[in-house]
Amino acid sequence: MSPSLMLKRYRVWLLLFLIAAALPWLAFNWSTGRHSGFVLTMLSEIGLITIFALSFNMQMGQAGLLSFGHAVLFGMGGYCTAHALNAIKAGSFWLPTELVPLIGGLGGLGFAVVFGYVATQQRATAFAMITMGIGELVAAAALMFMTFFGGEGGVTTNRMTDTSLLGASYSAPWQVYYLILVWALVCVILMRLQTQTPLGRMANATRDNFERAQFVGYDPRMVRFYQFIVSGFFAGIAGGLYAMLYEIVTFDTVSAVKSSTALLATYIGGVGGFYGPILGSIVVILLQSGVSLLSNAWMLYVGVLFIVMVMYAPMGLSGMIAAHGPIARAGRLRDLLLPYIRVLVPGAMVVLGFVMIAELVSFTTIGASQNKKFQVGSLLIDTASPVPWAIGAFALLLGGWWLRHESRGFQRVWDSTMEDIKRQAAADGGAT
Amino acid sequence: MSTLALQLRDVRKSFGPTEIIRGVSLDIPRGQRHAIIGPNGAGKTTLFNLISGRFPMTSGDIVLNGESIKGVAPHLINRKGLSRSFQITSIFPRMTVFENIRCGLLWAHDYKYSTWKLLGRQTALNDASEALLERLGLQSRRDLLAGLLSYAEQRALEVGVTIAGGAEVILLDEPTAGMSRGETENAVNLIRSVTEGKTLLMVEHDMSVVFGLADVISVVVYGEVIASDSPANIRTNAAVQEAYLGSEAT
Amino acid sequence: MEVFLVTLLNGLVYGMLLFMLASGLTLIFSMMGVLNFAHASAYMLGAYFAYTVSLYAGFWVGLIAAPVICGLIGALIEQYGLRRVHRNGHIAELLFTFGLALVIEKVVQMSWGLIPVPYRIPPELDFALFKVYGTQFHAYRAFMLLVSALMFGSIWLALTRTRVGLVIQAALVHPEMVSSLGHNVPRIFTMVFAAGTALAGLAGVIGGNYQTTEPSMAFSMGPIVFVVVVFGGLGSLLGCFIASLFMGLIQTFAVVLDYSLADLLKNFGVMVSSSTPFAELLTIPIPRIGALLPYALLVLILLFRPRGLMGTRDT
Q1: Which pLDDT score, from 0 to 100, does residue A365 have?
Q2: Which of B124, B246, C94, C253 has the greatest CB tally within 10 Å of its CB?
Q3: Residue A289 within any structural domain of the chain
């Protein structure tokens, strides 16, 4: 494909990449001449979690393997990278700073061979349980053993190894961010291409119909195993970038919590397609970093969002967006504008009511012990008074009842619009 | 080289205390078109599942091209030259028709588990896929998701994916089940053309298909072969008539 | 000898506690194919509800009330949540219960706070029952054994002597068949789910004051219970029972056996020093790796015997 054609095809992604590259400058404090460290760290975390979630989707979305221990591959990559950085600093060997995440990738890959050999003997629920067991095993080991894992304290390291190919010191957060961004781009491209390889296609095939995969000559177990290994390579790269970003790797990088981050990000964003996990990572990290500043209950919101998606939108955010494709192409998006407004208003009421109650409860117990007050802007809310509780409950209940009514109406409009489009397409198809 | 493509030697299969296949022995020479018929519940599909390695035999042996395939995993049996279709259509519903065929060709074109070759660039593979698609008459459906095809088209696609890898021994499990007269005719023509020179073993209920395609018919009743002969002789075989129609009321 | 007996008794108590949790999970998993991540959350809720109820009405009321509340919550979850997700497949059900576990943990943190709550053994049971070689055996432990034995007994009776029990036994092994025979399988599912959740709640009432009652108890107990269920095998309550006791004994004995691989090697004349490769692995004493053992067992059993000890179905 010629470069100009490629540019045209992927212009949306190029635009997004440019936006991502420009983001640090939105958080630039022009008076002090420095970027917001907090924002840059959050953006960097989004970048590496994106790689992590996409690698998780290689197992879950592409191969149908639900793993509860994916963080093990991430964390092992992190630990390996931390040790490698320390070795480079000590002069044991030389490697350009920019290529250090590769060590993480190799660490993840190596461990994925061992881990995967065991886990891919099974599939479906048994696979999920083995991964959970191994995940807990490694997390427990990471706390126990000092030599490789550094025990409870973890392994500290320093990314400024003076071996940069570009002459960068990586002392400034924005330099780290761009390193992560470039690696994210490379990994996204590689993982996308991987879906178009024999292994990638057979992973999809084996997921959908392992018996038919057998009778085109493929051993489903080996397909799972190899896909697992490739996924581990990318997870390890993400772990390596983590080690470089935070300059410390502890047991929480292999913990069940980290594994569930991958699961949440991927599922909320949407499994099955390719780009869902990118969207999901952004959402989850924004909630984790951003909302956690304001509220102790952010995990609750992520959990509830997750449950709601599992129940009503299993195709995830990207799936929901993609569902609008036929309607957009038929130029009928405008028909949905009013129905959307009618749904979003009660929807907003429900969300606000829920958040109100959640925050009230949270501030009553946790907030009290931390001596924090429930404050919205300049308005101080008294958790002891029944008024805010009543308002929250009212909004939640009324909004909920109203939402049920409106969502039925929305469903009707959606279905009839889709019907129209299908009929139109059939008529057009028949005419030509 | 053995002249027998497939040989079943006193194959038995029990599920718990019930013996479903009770000593089946068959010799199928290379290039033969062999049909297996029999009343419902006789164990025809179970027999197929035993041959293709889906279930293990309780006792007996199955020999493919002179080599025993007892206890061999299904994908290995496939690589040794046996392929099958299923009673319930078994394709890759979330892939396009073209990709289904291409997946069927991957192993035969020696791609194995490669994760560094981009399929879009594999000209030989893609050309072979297009050619097979044309033989199946499905080019107009090339980019449609397989799950959205009509029933008969899906069955045709499945036959295509089954023979794509170049297996010499083809097992077809009720290939024309649920088809109309016209669809059945097309299916039979397709089967006849794509299994030219190969050994075909099929389970069927449609007698016109059986008598039109088969060189030899075996009749399976209650897990045993009660007759194995040319179509003309089977038609007049008393035991077969009794199995299907019962004996006269006295 | 003293240490052995005391540890044995403690291991049995812990094992029975595990069984109370694992039995409900086995029933649910075997029958409905749902790996209920929120099961240990019901355990936690049972402990917390018992605590709150006992503040106002005493321990004994809590003993009855908490499991009932948990059962009701379980029924609601099954009817309005799980059933809706069921049509999206087993993985979706698993994810649903996983999300539920996350949410419940957070709700508990928000409702009762982050630090452990002082859920104590009731004064009526707070005494030493008898002495074993000088170490006291606490009356509450005997109470726990009693409750769990009664529970096992009544489950066994209910399953084998009642009609519903027979249907449940059948559905444990062949759920689809039971459905095609005309039994109201959805109603049975709700019942089993509610009963399993109530059992977990009961375990929480008993175990919450034996261990500490804190928001992380679900995620620390949960994985061990899964190991027990897989180890014991699907479809078999007896296997679950054996596996629970086995796991309880292993974990309790591990704390007491202060040896390491290096000690073992010493008997063969092999000395391990700090420069020996894998020295850390060899010198670590068993009590320290106690937390690892259940998971190592899980991996081993899934590799070599996916059916578990006495399972009648594959996982």
Answers
A1: 79
A2: C94
A3: yes
Residue ranges making up the domain that contains A331: 324-431
Q: What is the pLDDT of residue A82?
A: 95
Statement to judge: residues A161 and A127 lie in one domain = yes
* Topology of domain B4-245, CATH: Rossmann fold (3.40.50)
Where among A267, A289, A312 does a domain terminate? Answer: A312
Is A63 at the interface with chain C, CB within 8 A? no
Residue A317 domain-assigned (yes or no)? no
Residue A238 and residue A122 share a domain: yes
| Domain match, A296 and A348 both | no
Instruction: Give the chains touching A; criterion: ≥3 Cβ pairs < 8 Å.
Output: B, C
- Of the partner residues B83, B119, B161, the one whose CB lies closest to the CB of residue A197: B119
Min Cα distance B240 → chain A (Å) is 33
A171 assigned to some structural domain: yes
Q: What are phi and psi of B63, to 5 degrees?
A: -120, 120
- The alpha carbon torsion through C18, C24, C28, C34 (nearest 10 deg) reads -40
Mean pLDDT by 10 residues, chain B (250 residues): 84 90 93 91 89 92 93 94 93 94 94 91 93 92 92 93 93 92 92 92 90 91 90 86 71
Is residue A184 less than 8 Å (CB to CB) from chain C? no
Residues of B in contact with A226 (CB under 8 A): 113, 115
CB atoms near residue C276 (< 10 Å): 15
Residue at A397 is within a domain: yes
Task: Kindly give the pairing relationship between strand B199-203 and strand B169-173.
Answer: parallel
Mean pLDDT, residues A126-134: 87
| One domain, residues A270 and A334 | no
Question: Which residues of chain A does B106 touch, with a Cβ-Cβ cutoff of 8 Å?
Answer: 198, 201-202, 216-218
Please give the Cα distance from C138 to C232 (Å, whole number): 29
* Chain A stretch 194-233, residues whose beta carbon is closer than 8 A to a beta carbon of chain C: none
Please report the ipTM that was assigned to this predicted complex: 0.91
My answer on whether A258 and A346 are in the same domain is no
Reported as a single tens digit per residue, the pLDDT across C11-50 is 888 899 899 888 888 888 877 777 888 999 999 999 999 9
Q: What is the DSSP string of C178-210?
A: HHHTT--HHHHHHHHHHHHHHHHHHHHHHHHTT
What is the pTM for the complete model shown? Answer: 0.90
How many domains is chain A partitioned into structurally?
2
Q: Identify whether residues A291 and A380 lie together within a single domain.
A: no
- Chain A contact for C115, CB < 8 A? yes
Q: How far apart are CA C163 and CA C196, in angstroms?
A: 18
